[in-house]
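Whiteboard transcription, Tuesday session. T.W. wrote the structure tokens on the left side:
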């Protein structure tokens, strides 16, 4: 359970519409937010097992030096958009809070429903796909858990008094990051910067448009 994993996180606004300080570039295509937050334990309940997980500061540092991640919607698996990137990352780095991401959304009409969905809050999550390079597991008492014991506790139900385990991601290799529909983590942030004077739609309308596009694709 170390390769090609995905983590999705709901987000709250970093910069609200019309509050950008740069009116010349407020065309609704400037995306910014946090793709991951540090030291924030979150319950994971999936094929990997049931455990708590957090990301340590510095976990992305080496990956960002060596690999430029793609900016994709729903991990490049959406029925309409496929693996086509939904924009270009203009800034990505770690700060004291987590993984900060700024991107320029694609201008093509194809992406308009997604831009509207993000702006309205209908799409309210970010996610990243990664492989684990270094990790640490501890039990409920904070005691370090050896790799061979992790599997026994997670999958065989042994030593239940030590569960749920806490996994700390010390270093990951990240392949892509971007907005998603269904989040799993609970503390990232993102927004599209746009003029307040522009047209707006409701969250339900944005969701319907995305659904219709998927149906047309199928």
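and on the right, the sequence the group agreed on:
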């Amino acid at each position: 359970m170390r390769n090609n994993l995905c983590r999705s996180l709901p987000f709250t606004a970093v910069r609200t519409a019309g509050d950008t300080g740069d009116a010349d570039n407020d065309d609704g295509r400037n995306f910014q937010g946090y793709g991951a937050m540090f030291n924030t334990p979150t319950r994971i309940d999936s094929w990997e097992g049931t455990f708590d997980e957090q990301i340590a500061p510095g976990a992305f540092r080496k990956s960002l030096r060596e690999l430029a991640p793609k900016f994709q919607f729903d991990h490049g698996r959406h029925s309409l958009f496929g693996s086509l990137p939904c924009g270009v990352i203009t800034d990505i780095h770690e700060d004291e809070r987590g993984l900060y991401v700024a991107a320029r959304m694609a201008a093509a009409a194809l992406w308009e429903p997604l831009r509207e969905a993000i702006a309205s809050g209908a799409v309210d999550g970010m996610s990243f796909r990664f492989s684990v390079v270094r990790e640490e597991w501890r039990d409920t008492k904070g005691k370090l858990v050896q790799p061979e014991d992790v599997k026994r506790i997670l999958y065989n139900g042994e030593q239940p008094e030590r569960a749920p385990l806490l996994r700390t991601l010390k270093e990951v290799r990240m392949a892509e990051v971007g907005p998603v529909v269904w989040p799993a983590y609970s503390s990232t942030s993102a927004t599209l910067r746009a003029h307040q004077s522009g047209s707006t739609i409701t969250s339900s309308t944005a969701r319907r448009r995305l659904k219709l596009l998927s149906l047309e694709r199928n």
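Someone added at the bottom: Residues 5-217 form one domain.
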